[in-house]
Amino acid sequence: MTPDLAPDLNCARLTKRFGDTLAVDDVSFDVPPGSFFSILGPSGCGKTTIMRMIAGFLDPSSGDIRIKGRSMAGVPPNKRPVNMVFQHLALFPMMNIADNIGYGLRRQGLGKAEIARKVDAALERIGLPGIGARKVDELSGGQKQRVAIARCMVLEPDVLLLDEPLGALDLKLREHMKVELKALQAAFDTTFVYITHDQSEALVMSDQIAVMNNGVFEQVGSARDLYYRPDTAFVAGFVGDANRWQGRITAVNGEAMQIETDSGLTLRGARHGRSLNVGDRAEVFVRPEAIRIAGTPEDLQHFDNRITGTVTSLLFNGAASRILVRDTAGEEIEVTLPQSGEYAALSRGDAVHIGWSGDQGNCFPAGAA
């Protein structure tokens, strides 16, 4: 990725209305050459509308879309230097693999020898050399996914748009294809714009992620930025898992603050530059993996927040196993078990001591999510 160069894709003040409904609200962003940019958000947030405007299937109500510096205003979909991969891959079952990949090249009028050369090169790049004569129904789901991408990439688009392309795959294949897609993007060195509601897909693959909600971008940043330093309560709650409390701020000391929760707990957190003052209503978000378990309260003396509770559920998932702990106020707190296995024998009903540092509590004004 070379962010110092002019962006491959520039969207400036992009807005789309459907009657009285504002689907996309004054959104601006740049995508650098050769980067993997994802738009992440819940269903109905506007991400597919943005994708369809970039592809040319919808006209913006206002704003501009530029690809390689050229405005796409009035340019029909088939004349734009973009291609699109959909969740339902729409490979032609009556054609073999080579004919599927070469379909767009034939429409461009290229000669048979040139098409064959480009198709063979594309199959090499997706790691499936020599399968050109095979039929679509002879391929696995992951192979079909790669062929669909090759069919687009052989046309050498400036930008490849991917609309939830892994949604139809089973869980294990989806996990595998996250790695494959990132590797394919690097191999073709093409700008990918990817939309998904699956945070794991976006976090694993993307150079930059835009978290979208109700037609606007809440935050644009790296996966690490979004996860550890969310700008808004919506991002904190949508990206990753988090325990969440509401209450009133009772003390502020620099970035550190204290909150009395509605359930009666006294918690310490951090405002991270946000305008939060004594008396304000606030929300605190704490990641399950930020919470430590100990055998005795004394083992947690160095933590700002210390709670004794009872295990109510064991959520076994190998290295990602968690427990639910009910605190004295009756609320359940999700806690990631350490991978060392030292607490693998915990059972429902066991008493446990948990703690976390104040700076792990991300605080936001209440009602901002």
Number of domains: 2
- Please state the oligomeric state of the protein chains shown: single chain
Strand content: 25-35%
Task: State the end-to-end distance.
Answer: 32 Å
Radius of gyration: 25 Å
Residue runs with pLDDT of under 50 for 5 or more positions: none
- Main sheet: strand order: 6-7-8-3-9-10
SSE series: EEEHEEEHHHEHEHEEHHEEEEEEEEEE
Q: What is the number of E strands?
A: 20
Explain how this protein is built.
By secondary structure, the protein is α+β, with helices and mostly antiparallel strands. The protein folds into two domains: 9-234, P-loop containing nucleotide triphosphate hydrolases (Rossmann fold, 3-Layer(aba) Sandwich); 241-365, OB fold (Dihydrolipoamide Acetyltransferase, E2P). It has helices at 47-55, 97-107, 112-125, 141-153, 171-188, 199-205, 223-228, 233-238; strands spanning 9-18, 21-31, 36-40, 62-67, 70-71, 82-85, 159-163, 191-196, 208-213, 216-221, 243-253, 256-261, 266-270, 281-286, 292-294, 305-315, 322-326, 332-336, 351-356, 362-365. The longest helix is centred in the middle third of the chain and has 18 residues, at 171-188.
What keywords describe this structure?
single chain; 369 residues; alpha+beta; Rossmann fold; OB fold (Dihydrolipoamide Acetyltransferase, E2P); 2 domains; 6-stranded mixed sheet; 5-stranded antiparallel sheet; 8 helices
Task: Give the gist of this structure.
This protein has 369 residues and is of the alpha+beta class. It contains eight helices and 20 strands.
